[in-house]
Design brief:
By secondary structure, the protein is an alpha/beta fold. It has helices at 21-27, 32-39, 53-58, 76-88, 97-101, 113-123, 175-187, 205-208, 255-258, 276-287, 293-301, 306-310, 326-332; strands at 9-15, 40-44, 64-70, 73-75, 89-95, 138-141, 144-147, 151-156, 166-168, 196-197. The strands form 3 sheets. It has a 6-stranded parallel sheet, with helices on both faces. Strands 4-8 form a two-stranded antiparallel ribbon. It has a two-stranded antiparallel sheet with strand order 6-7. The structure holds iron/sulfur cluster (2 copies).
Length: 333
Amino acid sequence: MEKEEKGKLKLAVYWGAACGGCCVSVLDVHEKLLDIVAVADLVFWPIALDIKYADVQQMPDASIDVCLFNGAIRNSENELMAVLLRQKSKILVAYGSCAHMGGIPGLANFSNRDALFKRVYMDSESTENPEHITPQPKYDVKEGELEIPAFYNDVQTLRDVVCVDYYIPGCPPQSERLLEVFQAIVSGAELPSKESVVGALDKSQCDECPRKKTDNKKVKQFFRPWEIEDDGETCFLEQGVICMGPATRGGCGARCIEGNAPCRGCYGPPPDVTDPGAKMMSAIATMIDSNDEDEINAILDDIEDIAGTFYRFSLPSSILRRKMIKKQLAEVE
Ligand code: SF4
Ligand code: SF4
């Protein structure tokens, strides 16, 4: 995109259901932020600027050049802002794992709204709520009607509610990748085709991983990272530690691996993988060193929280999308 001759680019950053880490990663460009503001004006960024939603509503359509939307869609406010920012932005970027795939908030799709409210507002150890009061989107008080966002049953990705132009993956994305993408936009370089993942590689994490791989991929036991003494050199999977590398895009610089922690999958699947959890289950299946059904089941029992491990960042965008929890629904009713 070419910078308009008469003015700077207009940038917006917004968060939906997010932890704030993605906004901090924008600040992590450190002094390079000065280079950004030299060529771009930040016209909306609630974490840093006091600009109201009404101000955004008054902006002409497509007047924001690039909007980085981080966070998932958890409630009606997230969706309303996604629709508004789509309307006001030329390029809408799903920034970070939560906007891209649902992210950590998306793990709530293993439960549902009623079960979550029951736990948080009725059953938690620190809660006293004999009248079973839960948040209501609208509530009448003597001064008038109070309104808060409606809490949805499911966590959704940004793409589930609006068209997305690009995805910058990561939890959070590496600041260097953000700068590269920004510089490409400012330079007027030809942009990748719409709906691409940018700031990441098409290869898997294993391709950029410095750890030693051998042909000895069979394991008789899986471990959590703290249960073994990592030798610091051998592929985690070959040591029996679950590592999402085979089902994850490279491009982060193998930061977790460099820190002697297995890959968790925040960059999402490479282009040839439809569903990271299914890919990992298939990879694990080929590694189990047994043909005996009972032993195979015992080995699989070593893996704690299989669904949460394999879909840590991607449940709402996965084939599963959510878990049906009839039992919990029955309990709530
Ligand atoms: S992608 Fe990670 S850092 Fe960004 S908002 Fe989600 S949880 Fe936070
Ligand atoms: S599985 Fe993990 S440790 Fe092994 S090569 Fe792939 S990224 Fe590296």
